[in-house]
Amino acid sequence: MSTFRSGFACFVGRPNAGKSTLTNALVGGKIAITSSKPQTTRHAIRGLVHREDGQLVLIDTPGLHKPHTLLGQRLNALVRTTWSEVDTIGMCLPANESVGEGDKFLIRELAQISRKPVFAIATKTDLVKGDKLRDHLLSIQRAGADAGLQWKEIIPVSAVSGEQVELLAELLVATLPEGPALYPEGQLTDEPEETLIAEIIREAALEGVRDELPHSIAVVVDEMVPRADRPKDKPMIDVRVNVYVERDSQKGIIIGKQGARLKEIGSNSRAQIEAILGTPVYLDLHVKVAKEWQRDPKQLRKLGF
Ligand SMILES: Nc1nc2c(ncn2[C@@H]2O[C@H](COP(=O)(O)OP(=O)(O)OP(=O)(O)O)[C@@H](O)[C@H]2O)c(=O)[nH]1
């Protein structure tokens, strides 16, 4: 029997490097969700990659979402801890952008970790042509050498076209220690659909305003009902959702000018929700103020905490 491997990996890279999209592509779609409860680690699990040869647990790297406070300063301790705890690291460097100072800073930091495989992942290769990709791969190699980092591999991928995603999964799994699966297959997908849907909407609501609404937002799926008057071959589900914030000002942020942001939240999350439910949905989003909900046990229970 062939060896089964299991372990943890994280992706690092500047904002927009393609980490989330790659995570989704590796996981196979819908379950790359930041808030899934940490199980054996303190870190949030972003997704599970189940394969015949192993199981890869992709974890979130806190702090790297705020590179402006991070780059140019020392990396915070939590990020270092994450790096020291995972089995393998993938640094994402988008092929349509040159290797910049921010990237080099990260590469130097990664070079400090000894005896851990660090992959350079040239993301978004569908956006560039041959010569440009070759130059990009060369500058990644050079940046590694300059920092004293020996890349485990430099691998070009496109999460959008799917090119080399399978190969990347194989290479990452090959670096994991031998061991049984850490999570039952499909564990994260066993979360109730409502939880996944609420989480997708919460992510969409936080998009671009994360700093303004850090923890003050909770999303609850109120009901999901099949629309009665639809033909059998064209079903539709009405999904009624409440988005709770703590203050009126936050309500304004979520709703946006003439409802523009709320509309955007709906359209950004609908496709993913439709993928989960397997039917078109009508999303009915309501924003409500639940004052100080984080401090009110009764409200917390209502919001599912
Ligand atoms: N064409 C193309 N676009 C991609 C690919 N991967 C990601 N993108 C796009 O690049 C943008 C950023 O991708 P994300 O996956 O959100 O990047 P990220 O590194 O997770 O970003 P942060 O959450 O800001 O750290 C999005 O608009 C993606 O659609 C790819 O393989 N090809």
At a glance:
With 305 residues, the chain is of the alpha/beta class. It is 35% helix and 21% strand.
Order of helical and strand elements: EHEEHHEHEHEHHEEHHEH
- Give the overall shape, derived from the CA principal axes: globular
Mean pLDDT score: 81
Helix content: 25-40%
Small ligands present: guanosine-5'-triphosphate
Notes on the protein architecture:
- With 305 residues, this protein is an alpha/beta fold.
- It folds into 2 domains: 5-174, P-loop containing nucleotide triphosphate hydrolases (Rossmann fold); 192-302, 2-Layer Sandwich (GMP Synthetase, Chain A, domain 3), CATH 3.30.300.20.
- It has 10 helices and 9 strands.
- It has helices spanning 19-27, 67-70, 77-85, 101-111, 130-147, 165-174, 193-206, 248-255, 260-277, 297-302, and strands at residues 5-12, 45-50, 54-59, 88-94, 118-123, 154-156, 218-226, 237-245, 281-289.
- The chain is globular, with a radius of gyration of 21 Å.
- Bound molecules: guanosine-5'-triphosphate.
- Residues 13, 15-21, 65, 123-124, 126-127, 158-160 line the site of guanosine-5'-triphosphate.
- GTP binds at residues 13-20, 60-64, 123-126.
- Residues 157-159 are annotated as: G5.
Write the layout of secondary structure elements.
Elements: E1 5-12, H1 19-27, E2 45-50, E3 54-59, H2 67-70, H3 77-85, E4 88-94, H4 101-111, E5 118-123, H5 130-147, E6 154-156, H6 165-174, H7 193-206, E7 218-226, E8 237-245, H8 248-255, H9 260-277, E9 281-289, H10 297-302
Parallel strand pairs: 1-3, 1-4, 4-5, 5-6, 8-9
Antiparallel strand pairs: 2-3, 7-8
Helix pairs in contact: 7-9
Bound molecules: guanosine-5'-triphosphate.
Residues 13, 15-21, 65, 123-124, 126-127, 158-160 line the site of guanosine-5'-triphosphate.
